[in-house]
Amino acid sequence: MNFLKSKRSWMAAPILWFCTLCLLVAIWAFSPCTEEWIKAYIDDDGHSFVEVVTIGFFVLEFFCIWLIPPMEPGKRRFFWQLDFSLITWIAVCRELDWHKAWINMEKISQIPGASHGTPFKMRFLTNSANPLADRLIVLLCFVVVIAVCGGTLLYFIRRLVKGFFKLHPVCWTIGFLGGVTILIQVFDRMPSILNKKFHYALSPSISALFSILEEGQELLLPLFVILALIQAYFIYVEKPGDEEAFAKYRAL
């Protein structure tokens, strides 16, 4: 824990990500990576080993938000703990695809001209053939997610960018959280894009690697949040270590 209390704590997120990436590549290299193996351990609509562990870490994140407060006591702390808890709940709903259960796409797809596939895309809203009630549900989800996640990011963005260049530990961890989220989307969408746009299908081995890198890095998301909470607690609540070094972080 002394490392997380030091001014070198900003290195924790890069080290965690790099070690995890090496581990994921090693798993891909030394595992059978058959369709059955991928389904059992990596990707099975929330039922595989890695996905279950990811949900477990999200549950742990809930507890950490309230047990390891990221700021000093007060109404401000309570508000942001509620906000972070709601963002975590949104992440859990996405991970388990709970939001998709609100829309019966099998029934909708039978309507002439209606949408197919996931309803949580802008073209679902703009397609007048889709039922109005379902479009309103999707719109409400968009509004809530954008308001909560986007509003939180907008509030902290100046301090995050400024802190990133000043090696603020929390800012680096949140920066890696955002960067890994983008990487996950790349590994998730790339096979489909290559197939639809360029008529190129990935080999089973590379497809397995993409699945491992996608799901394996999703496991990192709650861990980054837990790490950021611990770092924020040490900086803003416990205030340990080199007081001069940490004072510049608290001034952001």
Largest sheet properties: none
The number of E-state strands comes to 0
Q: How big is the Rg? A: 21 Å
Low-confidence stretches: none
| Strand percentage | under 5%
SS field, number of helical segments: 11
The structural class is mainly alpha
| First-to-last CA distance | 24 Å
Shape: globular
In N-to-C order, the SSE pattern is HHHHHHHHHHH
Helix content: over 70%
Average pLDDT score = 88
Oligomer: single chain
Please give a structural write-up.
By secondary structure, this protein is an all-alpha fold. It contains 11 helices and no strands. Helix 1 packs parallel to helix 8, helix 1 runs antiparallel to helix 9 and helix 4 crosses helix 7. The longest helix has 34 residues. The chain is globular. The relative contact order is 0.16.
Helix-strand layout with pairing:
Elements: H1 12-30, H2 35-41, H3 49-67, H4 75-96, H5 105-108, H6 122-126, H7 132-165, H8 169-198, H9 204-218, H10 220-238, H11 243-250
Helix pairs in contact: 1-8, 1-9, 3-4, 3-10, 4-7, 7-8, 8-9, 8-10
Task: Please describe the structure with a list of short key phrases separated by commas or semicolons.
single chain; about 250 residues; mainly alpha; 11 helices
Overview in brief:
The chain has 252 residues and is mainly α.
